[in-house]
Design a protein that fits this description.
single chain; 724 residues; alpha/beta; Glutaconate Coenzyme A-transferase; 4 domains; nine-stranded mixed β-sheet; eight-stranded mixed β-sheet; 15% strand
Length: 724
């Protein structure tokens, strides 16, 4: 949004961009760059280098989710990970500020502030913790502008002279508007990447939105990607429970990671293999669900309103599950919701519009433009001096006449309404094949995916009547770290103030679930976590930090079931949470609940809840894993099958460090096991065949034995499942 009125400059040098920024706004630079993928890395690094070399420049970088190429770990894990990391990240350029930030060696004239961290990445980085900004996602633009932003820089896509904010229209548009309204000087810089998917909708901006576009030879380095992770069976269990709460003809939001992938896969099973899905659900249930469940397919389909567009969402579109289109017109949307009209152009649609008095019998230019916009009449219909013409043929300007309606609809009859959206999202990030699939979308599908700002996706304030109509039967599915017995949820930080990730949009979605008439917030929490050799419950009596307060409690899901907490009294909330806790902790949790005075001293948990153990879940889910219904990587992997098997087994070995009692049995089985020819590719991949010494020989036997036990040597399908 050039504030000089000049046309956008197209240059090749990021250093030239820095020069132009300094000339425009001076030497006190406050640089805002998007979270995640949208960072223009080469441009950010040019600003960093310039400020690091010149103490007279002050540089404050405001951002979130600073992504880093993983380090190659030592030992055997490094033999596996090294080639994989190189294959995935190639010539990706690191953010220059990350290494000195981690080392506590940032120059005094440079400050980095983030409002969201990659989970756990900055736990021990004092400088990052000190400058963390805690802000709801919908308030971030306001807060960053409040810091004095005078440079906005972003990675963009370009196609036929058009510009798209692509992966990150989440905040840029709002910040630019706020700065313009305030009359604040700001330079807008775009870095063009040739492989960034061109996204339409609100991500498409005017050619002069940016003051400068840079498209130099180094600007096409590999995009950062977030590979799909392995889905453990515990996440599948929680996802199957959560997926049964998703109503057909409704709205869905899910996040990134293993749980989001598991929810998407569960929905696909529910749609395509419903009998299998129902058997899965029946095998997991211990109590009748306290909330309505939906076990049938998605006949009418879902619409997606989410801050983050993930690869699992695209899989749901490809599977025909996300197919409910919404329209940015309240009258049309309400007509669709009520079943008064369909999404197809027909005579009934025109009659209904007349009945609602949305159209006069005699059309004006505005009426005709509206009809054309939604694809109800074709471009061949025109008005001249008050008369209607269709392909040059004059018609009476009276749509109450059947003959007139018939001719008006002749071109578009039977066609779907235009400008319907399957998805609204604020940003995207995912594996490399996700970006490729987005680049190769059919035009009709691409046009139905609207990347927009989070003020739209995460709240209702911008247009509450319309968004309420669009987001019917919404289910907002997110993750938390812990839940207290009062129903409060901890998702972003520890009680000592250490930030693990950030609140992001979670509070927005939980609050919105309470504001919409038929929506639910579903927070999924793994029942336990391991800290060294000690196992902890993630359902806790109390905790000294809260992300979601107890007065917004709704649905909590663990791998052991569904706890519907909305509107319940404190005693019932405690009972329901203990019922879905791991049975190894239920006794002490019940004792704490009774001690609080909230639960009666003679209360007893239902017998069916007393076997909430990993062993029971494994018995219920392993047959489905074995048959291929619960794959480790439901939406593909950057790892080869051999690498997947090795990663799985090395993860098991790493976990066994915390359980030394398991080692003798494993070693005994390994010594009795003779590596087979099927294990050769696996051992060669880790340079263990032939072994260099006795230790490597024993390690090869251990791995070969594990590969056999966990089903990697049995053909295409695994026999054993993932860890809990």
């Amino acid at each position: 949004m050039s504030d000089t009125g000049r046309a956008t400059a197209l240059i090749e040098s990021v250093e030239d961009c820095v020069d132009r920024a300094l000339a425009r706004v001076g030497r006190q630079l406050v640089l805002a760059v998007p979270l995640g993928l949208g960072k223009p890395v080469q441009l950010v690094n040019a600003f960093y280098r310039r400020a690091a070399a010149d103490p007279g420049i002050s540089l404050h970088i405001l951002t979130a989710l600073s992504l880093e190429r993983p380090e190659v770990p030592p030992g055997l894990a490094g033999r596996l990970a090294g080639p994989v990391i190189e294959r995935i990240y190639g010539d990706y350029e690191e953010l220059a500020y990350m290494a000195p930030l981690r080392a506590g060696e940032l120059p005094e004239n440079i400050r980095i502030s983030e409002f969201y961290f990659r989970a756990g990445a900055m736990k021990s980085v004092a400088e990052a913790q000190r400058h963390y900004i805690s802000s709801n996602y919908t308030h971030v633009a306001r807060d960053l502008v409040g810091h004095g932003v005078n440079v906005i820089a972003q990675l963009v896509a370009r196609r036929d002279g058009e510009i798209s904010l692509s992966c990150n229209p989440d905040l840029t548009l709002h910040m630019a508007r706020m700065l313009a309204e305030a009359g604040r000087p700001c330079i807008h810089l775009g870095q063009v990447h040739p492989e960034l998917p061109f996204m339409g909708g609100d991500a498409r901006v005017a050619p002069d939105f940016f003051d400068v576009l840079v498209a130099g030879p180094d600007c096409g380095r590999r995009l950062f990607s977030a590979p799909n992770g392995q889905v453990p069976l515990a996440d599948y269990a929680a996802a199957i429970h959560a997926s049964s709460l998703i109503a057909d003809n409704g709205t869905l939001q899910i996040g990134i990671g293993a749980l989001g992938d598991a929810v998407a896969q569960a929905c696909i099973l529910r749609q395509r293999e419903n009998a299998t899905y129902q058997r899965l659900l029946a095998g997991l249930e211990t109590l009748p669900s306290p909330v309505q469940q939906y076990r049938g397919g998605f006949d009418k389909g879902l619409y997606v309103s989410t801050e983050m567009f993930v690869s699992g969402m695209l899989a749901l579109i490809e599977a025909g599950i996300v197919k409910r289109r919404v329209y940015d017109d309240l009258l049309l949307q309400e007509g669709l919701n009520e079943g008064a009209i369909g999404g197809i152009v027909d005579e009934q649609l025109l009659l209904w519009l007349r009945q609602c008095e949305a159209l006069p019998a005699r059309l004006g230019e505005g009426d005709l433009a509206w009809l054309r916009h939604w694809g109800i009449v074709g471009d061949s219909v025109t008005l001249a001096e008050g008369d209607l013409y269709c392909a040059g043929e004059r018609l009476d300007n009276d749509i109450d006449q059947h003959a007139v309606r018939r001719v008006l609809l002749e071109q578009n009859r039977g066609m779907p309404l235009r400008h319907g959206n399957l998805l609204h999202a604020g940003f995207f990030l995912g594996p490399r094949d996700f970006y490729q699939r987005l680049r190769e979308l059919e035009p009709a599908v691409a046009e139905s995916l609207c990347m927009t700002w989070v003020g739209r996706t995460n709240q209702l304030l911008e247009n509450a009547p319309l968004y309420r109509a669009q987001r019917r039967r919404a289910r907002f599915i997110n993750t938390g770290m812990m839940a207290t017995l009062s129903g409060a949820v901890v998702s972003d930080a520890l009680e000592d103030g250490t930030v693990i990730s950030g609140v992001g949009g979670q509070y927005n979605f939980v609050a919105m679930a309470h504001d919409l008439p038929d929506a639910r917030s579903i927070l999924c929490i793994r029942s336990t976590r391991r800290d060294g050799r000690r196992l902890h419950s993630n359902i806790v009596p109390r905790y000294g930090h809260t992300t979601i307060p107890r007065h917004l409690r709704d649905i909590v899901v663990t791998e052991y079931g569904i706890a519907d907490l909305r509107g319940q009294d404190d005693g019932e909330v405690m009972k329901r949470l203990i019922q879905v806790a791991d049975s190894r902790f239920q006794g002490e949790l019940l004792q704490a609940a009774v001690a609080s005075g909230k639960v009666e001293a003679d209360y007893r948990l239902p017998e069916s809840c007393l076997n909430n153990t990993p062993q029971r879940l494994a018995a219920a889910l392993e047959p489905f894993r074995r048959d291929g219904w619960l794959p480790d990587y439901p939406f593909g992997s950057d790892l080869t099958r051999v690498e997947q098997g090795l990663a799985d087994c090395l993860k098991v070995l790493d976990g066994m460090r915390q359980q030394p009692r398991e080692w003798p049995g494993l070693l005994w089985r390994a010594l009795r096991h003779k590596p087979t020819a099927a294990a050769a590719d696996y051992l060669q991949r880790l340079q263990l065949a032939p072994p260099a010494n006795v230790g490597e020989g024993l390690l090869g036997r251990v791995l070969s034995s594990l590969l056999q036990e966990r089903g990697w040597l049995q053909g295409d399908s695994r026999v054993a499942g993932g860890d809990f």
